[in-house]
Write a structure and sequence with these properties.
Length: 316
């Protein structure tokens, strides 16, 4: 039964994100905001909303394993699984700025997290915790990222983006309904993830790294897969890189400000895997055809993700 409710929670969560994005985009369009601004802010928030709401609820409940495992697991799945699938559908060619600026910034996000959660290594303390001051540091990094994103908008790049038109009343109802669905879905997921972990005698961190992480990454999977099919590589990769930056700087920042998150050193392995995945993504654009993530590389990413999941299951 917990698995069924867990799955229902994901359906509610993802549908809520869809309604939130559609309603908010319609409101923004009505106020004359540019399509690029909508894409960089509202849609970026919408695809990461499942991770955000799951983490907020996990933080309030003190479920540190799910809170950090969800983000680290999502970032690994985003690169190895989702970009792997997208590249397998169609080779992804990206702009030079993505390789030189955005992917390195994603790498910096993982390094910042690794330093922030390892108080034993860095400060010689007897415990490891993502504190409120760490959270504020991550938020400051996120503000720098937003400044960079708005700089891109000022440069006039990014193209157009179609937004469905709705009446103002319908738009606000969609926003309210989307937020409500995200809250309900997030609570169902966290509550039943903890029950599943107890029933299977596994850690909540393992559930966060696998079931919760993959489930909350479904919006990114759908977006990148469709973008690859339509041969829109910048959207396919930009969606993932942006989501990974958003996940660490914004979501973990907010989560730790609400309640400091205790950190188990066992998760250092997974953070290092996220770091390695980011390095592999950067290296892939210089191996073979320059600035192109080829099909064979996509298949390699998927195989690496399967190996990672196998290690997690073995580790328990």
């Amino acid at each position: 039964m917990p698995f069924i409710i867990f799955a229902v929670g994901f359906v509610i969560l993802i549908k809520g994100a869809d309604y939130l994005v559609e309603g908010a985009s319609a409101v923004a369009k009505r106020f004359g905001l540019s399509p690029l601004f909508i894409g960089l802010t509202i849609v970026a928030f919408g695809t990461s909303a499942p991770e955000l709401f799951v983490n907020l609820i996990a933080s309030v409940k003190g479920s540190a394993g799910i809170a950090i495992g969800n983000i680290v697991g999502s970032n690994i799945a985003n690169i190895l699984l989702i970009l792997g699938v997208a590249a397998a559908i169609y080779p992804l060619k990206v702009k030079d700025s993505t390789v030189r600026k955005e992917i390195p910034l994603s790498f910096l996000a993982v390094v910042a997290l690794l330093v922030a959660v390892n108080d034993f290594w860095v400060d010689g303390l007897a415990f490891n915790v993502l504190t409120r001051s760490d959270g504020l540091m991550l938020i400051f990094f996120f503000i720098i990222f937003l400044y960079y994103a708005f700089g891109i908008m000022a440069g006039g790049t990014g193209g157009d983006m179609s937004v469905k038109k709705h009446s103002q009343l319908i738009s606000w109802v969609m926003i309210a309904g989307g937020l409500a669905a995200l809250t309900v879905g997030g609570k169902l997921i966290v509550d039943n993830a903890l029950i599943i972990a107890q029933n299977l005698h596994i850690s909540d961190a393992l559930v966060g790294l696998t079931l919760v992480a993959v489930g909350t990454s479904l919006p990114e999977l759908a977006t990148s897969a469709v973008a690859a099919y339509k041969k829109q590589a910048d959207i396919a990769i930009g969606n993932i890189v942006g989501s990974n930056i958003f996940n660490i700087f914004w979501i973990l920042g907010i989560s730790s400000i609400i309640r400091p998150i205790a950190f188990s050193t066992d998760l250092n392995f997974d953070i290092l895997v996220a770091l390695l995945a980011t390095v592999l993504l950067l290296a892939a654009f210089f191996i073979g055809k320059k600035h192109i993530l080829e099909r064979w590389q996509g298949y390699m990413f998927i195989i690496l993700y399967a190996l990672y999941i196998s290690v997690l299951v073995y580790r328990g």
